[in-house]
Amino acid sequence: MISQWRLRAAFAARLSEMYGQEVPAYTTLVDVSREVNEDVLRARGADAERLGSIGRVTAERHGAIRVGTPDELRQVARVFAALGMHPVGFYDLREAAASAVPVVSTAFRPVDGEELARNPFRVFTSMLTPADPRFFDADLRSRLESFLAGRELFPAKLLALADRAAAERELPEADAERFLRLAVHAFELSPEPVEAAWYETLERISAVAADIGGVRSTHINHLTPRVLDIDELYRRMTERGIEMIDTIQGPPKWRGPDVLLRQTSFRALAEPRAHRTPDGSVVSGALRVRFGEVEARGIALTREGRALYDRLLTLVDQRAADHPEADRGDLARAVWERHMPGAERELAAQGLAYFTYRVAPGRPRDGSRPPADLGALVERGWVRAEPIVYEDFLPRSAAGIFQSNLSGEGTRNNDHEGTAYDAGWLSEAIGHEVLDPYALYEQQQNRSLARVAGELELDGTLR
Known about the structure:
The structure is a single chain. This protein is an alpha+beta fold. The protein has 2 domains: 2-299 and 394-432, Roll (2,3-Dihydroxybiphenyl 1,2-Dioxygenase, domain 1), CATH 3.10.180.80; 304-385 and 448-455, no CATH class. It has helices at 4-22, 24-44, 54-59, 70-81, 93-96, 113-118, 138-149, 156-168, 173-186, 196-205, 207-213, 230-239, 303-322, 328-339, 344-349, 374-379, 395-404, 423-430, 437-455; strands at 2-3, 61-67, 86-92, 103-109, 122-128, 170-171, 194-195, 222-225, 261-266, 270-276, 282-288, 292-297, 355-359, 383-387. The longest helix is centred in the first third of the chain and has 21 residues, at 24-44. The radius of gyration is 23 Å and the shape is globular. Keywords: Dioxygenase, Iron, Oxidoreductase.
């Protein structure tokens, strides 16, 4: 029998192999990421594994897919449930981008710490929003919804195997092989000709809308390895002649602790795609829809820490507007150095980041009683604080990656009021609760505090 986590690991590996065959620059990205990680490990030793073992970091991937309807999203949820992956977080990219990105998103991932350590594969999944009148007028919405209703992304056999794996938390080897083969095939780029006129109609609204609603299939848009030094990776990829997007999205490179998520990518490549013209003939063409993203993950921030992060981004925006000639990275670094705590201990003391706590093996043995205060326990060597890695995404960064790889800005009519979507709506659409990432991190931290209190025989709750 093949357990869910082994299914997840095998699916991630096969998807990576398939994507490397279809997008060779992705293989280069993985190779350079591995080289950088090995160099960082040699230079920094155990400190390089502070946010995950090198085995986990090397195997880690996140993917991105796009679907068109709530029904399709429900089917995606069934496929990922087979792999022990749950919807976590709600992201509204319509509000995070200056250009037209008419999607709302969630991420499917494991949520249990042990499952994340085994294989942390996650898939950022976006759904088109045809009901938003800022992007789609009534006629185009009707045509788009009719087109989407007439396609099938996932065969019934795949969904049946997925439901069985989700219910039984494993599959027999032969069924696991069938499931993996069907699942990987569902995310391959289809050779079916693109209806040129229809695709171009949607592309005038948004390249993302065209990629989702302009074809009769879905596909993996990017796969993302994890790297320990994203600035060095950016430099090495550029040296190899790979065209990277202009910036690294997320927090700046600075002297303090890495927090949340930094991302960049190589630019979407012009890939050959057959086009069917209005007269029915099929001609050669090209589309830019797939790219290679890479990420560096940091410490998960609490709600208060995230609020500080967002305030600092706003401050950087203001400084950049006031000093357009200045380097944005330098401006951001100066803001971070002034306002963001410069050490993990300060982040913990101010309640800005999540940690797991463990009783230190070398704790005092002189018969003294441990203090009841968490800060004092850490300060006096009774307890160790280990940062919790950020497993989720940043809507502004995701939108920035999308924007950097679009063929045009698209159109958005802000005279209309946008259609409201939120985590509750998305939960109902998927048929599964969209989990709150902050609650997951807090539960992980609180469980560790309860263990510490029990081991040290402390009364009350540690905070």
